[in-house]
Design goal:
The structure is a single chain. The protein is of the alpha/beta class and 248 residues long. The chain has two domains: 67 residues, no CATH class; 179 residues, 3-Layer(aba) Sandwich (Rossmann fold), CATH 3.40.50.300. The chain contains nine helices and eight strands. The strands form two sheets. It has a five-stranded parallel sheet, with helices on both faces. Strands 1-2-3 form a three-stranded antiparallel sheet, with no helix packed on it. The chain starts with 8 loop residues before the first strand and ends with a helix.
């Protein structure tokens, strides 16, 4: 029989912490009085446990951030500080929804391809997704495509830590340096592993889809254009850096 169903009675004592009456109940057959824990103690225990979980989560976030390969500058990229301009609205809303619903995106293995001019904000949006995903305690890594390809070339086609198994991978500025067969093969290897493992990938590029066929392997293009695997998001805004220089 649970304590909630037993008849309780006032013990005549009060809680030394909050002054509330201390109630007791008797164990059946033995009639041994057992004091009911005061609500203030239960509340304190709950607060302590909540604080412990918060500290544990923060440590996990710090660990994931350290492993994300994100440059310090991009760790400050969030949706709240993104400069919303004409031509970025749809991409901004789509990326924010993707980040908010990442557990669902992860379950589907669905990735994004952000296409836009240099300086249009696609790297900021990709970094904001990574930061949001890490805050949800999922692993995420961010690599410049050229740096990743160089690493693979120097390490006998081996891939960097987290590139294959992380919950989310961002390849920034892909397509700009895929001009060799070995780099095309590396990109295909990454996509094959992640797609087969239902691990989402986000790519950013300034190369429009109509030019992919002339820049990439046919099989890679076929996968990138598969709507069940990737959503292609166009950012039509011009370079924000150029706009800033013109206004100075």
């Amino acid at each position: 029989m649970s304590a909630e169903k037993m008849e309780k009675y006032d013990s005549g004592r009060v809680c030394p912490h909050c002054g509330r009456p201390i109630y007791c109940y008797d164990i059946p057959f033995f009639e041994i009085p057992v004091a009911i824990t005061c609500q203030c103690i239960l509340d304190q225990d709950a607060a302590t446990e909540k604080q412990r979980e918060a500290v544990k989560k923060q440590r996990r976030i710090e660990e994931l951030t350290a492993k994300s390969q994100m440059p310090p500058r991009l760790r400050a990229c969030t949706f709240d500080v993104f400069q919303r301009r004409e031509g970025t609205e749809k991409a901004m809303d789509t990326c924010r929804t993707y980040a908010d619903r990442f557990p669902e995106m992860r379950e589907k293995g669905l990735g994004l391809i952000l296409v836009g001019n240099t300086g249009s904000g696609k790297t900021h949006l990709a970094a904001a997704i990574v930061n949001s995903v890490i805050q949800q305690c999922y692993s995420a890594v961010f690599y410049k495509a050229a740096k990743l390809f160089d690493f693979a070339a120097e390490n006998h086609a081996a891939l960097p830590d987290g590139c294959e198994r992380s919950s989310l991978l961002v390849l920034d500025d892909f397509g700009a340096s895929n001009d060799t067969e070995s780099r095309k093969a590396t990109l295909q290897k990454i996509l094959d592993y992640r797609i087969d493992g239902m691990r989402p990938t986000i790519l950013t590029t300034n190369i429009p889809p109509k030019e992919w066929a002339s820049r990439l392997d046919v099989r890679t293009v076929d996968r990138l254009m598969d709507k069940s695997l990737f959503r292609v998001i166009s950012i039509t805004a011009p370079s924000m850096r150029q706009e800033r220089r013109r206004s100075e």
